Predict the structure.
Amino acid sequence: MRKQFAVVGLGRFGGSVCRELYSMGHEVLAIDVNEDRVHDFANYSTHAVVANATDENTLLSLGIRNFEYVIVAIGDNIQASILCTLLLKELNVKHVWVKAQNHYHHKVVEKIGADRIIHPEKDMGVRIAHYLVSEKIIDYIELSPDYSIMELIASNKVANKTIAQLNIRAKFGCTILGIKRGEEVIVTPFPEQLILEKDILILIGHNNDLKRFEEEGI
Ligand code: ADP
């Protein structure tokens, strides 16, 4: 389904969010105070406009209220990011996602109603650290401080066995959400599903259980 997004701030983060949404076929309004940046995004957005997103009248004239999702990706100017978030919530934008620079920025935008707060550098750092420590780990997404989703590559230890035979949930407390096999994705596999070597298992579980499975089970 085509959704309507507005991206405020076309730096490295906002810029890549904008391009990706647009390439997926969504409607994207790209906003930045910097004319050169806006010019660069003319072909990677539905509309690209030079505007100061801390000005309420400007936001109103852009029809920002009609957007389902607004991503505030203003970088170093924390004051501008906070003010923009405040205005968007006052204008009743339903989903305001904010890129936070630090813990204090996070706390303030959380208080004024940001619906989701993103720390791309921190999150990416955590993910990279996990790839670094184990060659089995393909991807890692932190759901909360205790629970995560992990993608692990199947070794010959689990290959040619079914999920039921491996009994991963009982032995390790983790659940297989899906299996990636080349281009194919097997979603919520049945217990009789056979695992092949080099399959990528997508698992959800407590961090301790996932770690144990990664070290001993696969
Ligand atoms: P990143 O760390 O993602 O690369 P940057 O700091 O490079 O972030 O980019 C932030 C962008 O936000 C810049 O292009 C800047 O011009 C834009 N920006 C800053 N303040 C405002 C504002 N008030 N309204 C709109 N865009 C803004």
About this structure: The pocket of adenosine-5'-diphosphate is lined by residues 8-14, 31-34, 37, 52-54, 73-77, 80 (CB under 6 Å). The mean pLDDT is 94. The chain has nine helices and 13 strands. The longest strand covers residues 147-153.
